[in-house]
Amino acid sequence: MIAHAAAAARLRDVVHSATTGLVDREQLAELMVLASVAGEHLLVVGPPGTAKSAVVRRVANALGGRYFEYLLGRFTEPSELFGPVDLRKLRDGRVEADVTGMLPEADIAFLDEVFLGSTAILNSLLGVLNERRFRRGHTDIACPLRVCVGAANALPEDEALAAFADRFLLRLFVEPVPDSRLEALLEGGWAEESRAPGATADMADLDLLRAQVAQVRIADVRNPLAEALRKLRAAGVTLSDRRIVKTQRLVAAATVLAGREQATEADLWPLFYVLPSREAQLSAQEVLRGSMLMATNPTLRNAVEQVVLQPVSRVDRLVQAAQSCLDDTGSAATRTIAEALLREIDANFAAPALSPELAAARARLVERVSEPA
User: Fold this and answer.
1) Do 299 and 258 form a contact (C-beta atoms < 8 A)?
2) pTM for the predicted model, two decimal places
3) Mean per-residue pLDDT pooled into runs of 10, the chain (373 residues)
């Protein structure tokens, strides 16, 4: 397990590096890692200009795999994603696509406005997403795709598109940065052009952890998972059988990223992100509160905190964020980040309620912002 722990640590560093200067986007990077290890896909729903593509691009660059990105439109042709017909082979009577540098060769893909694709595009995408195979004419090839991140401004209302959207197991709903963090947003945006490349991992780390997913012992959490699903159904929140079954793979991936081989109730939290709508997720935060009390993950802290909304998870994340800020002595944005963290700590915890670790972190942050500029 030493190799697995080291790989998970490298992915944790990638998440931190990829989201430096991008406020409140750690969840996206963490869920992208979770989806990659689980062999599933992620749908991000939110307004334009909320740094969706920036986060995906940074994570992909840090992992070093072949990356494909495209903004779909009503008139996008299949060849723009899957490659044109190979004219040399067409002369011999074979209809094959030249996929060089296109989606079928990608390790990581980002498809913006994914629901604007034509029927022909979506049908081909289904094969790539579900089976990791691309078929067109005489072309039938395996795809190395680890994860596809789809983005849209809203969920589709058309039933046919909703069925396609169901292939994205994980859902994340993003909002513009809140008023309380505008200073950090401005500082991070200003420093973006001078940002140096950060921590890196590689596809081998993903593949090592992904291979371990099948070895996770998950039987002990099936009853708690079933009970959580019953609570959701009782509250009027339902999932398709396919999404219910696939949730187990996310639980196993969370277990691996936590550095364990035995799944526990601490690993049930990905169920929250399987819920298909914003309304369902908001309802689930209260419905699942008792089921998620034990939720934790040292690699994916921000994603867990959003699920449980418990002080202990918030403390864990704030202590880690403070340490990262204090360790970063070369960034011009450090002071602004420290000020933002102090505002968040003070807004969430009265001084007597601070844990010793968080109190010590707060004191060091105060020292940092008090230093001469």
Assistant:
1) yes
2) 0.83
3) 84 84 86 96 94 91 92 94 81 79 96 94 93 88 96 90 91 87 75 64 90 95 96 92 96 95 95 94 86 87 80 69 77 73 78 81 86 74
Question: From CA 302, how far away is CA 344, in angstroms rounded?
Answer: 14
Per-residue DSSP letter, 114: G
Q: How far is CA 204 from the centre of its chain?
A: 18
Q: CB–CB of 41/148 below 8 Å? A: yes
Q: What are phi and psi of 345, to 5 degrees?
A: -60, -50
| Residue from 366, 369, 361, 297 nearest 323 by CA | 361
Written as six digits, the tokens of 61 are 């660059």
Q: What is the CA angle 113-117-119, rounded to 5?
A: 155
DSSP 153: S
* Residues β-bridged to residue 139: 136
- Return the H-helix or E-strand segment holding 71: strand 67-71
Name the H helices within the chain. Answer: 2-19, 26-38, 52-63, 79-82, 87-90, 119-126, 159-165, 182-191, 203-213, 222-234, 241-257, 271-274, 278-287, 301-308, 311-327, 334-348, 356-370
Q: With contact defined as beta carbons under 8 Å apart, do 133 and 140 qualify?
A: yes
Q: Which two tokens stand for residue 154?
A: 């809203």
3-state SS, residue 290: coil
C-alpha to C-alpha distance for 183 and 243, rounded to whole angstroms: 39
Alpha carbons 127 and 186: distance in angstroms, whole number: 41
Locate 268 and state its tokens: 């049930």
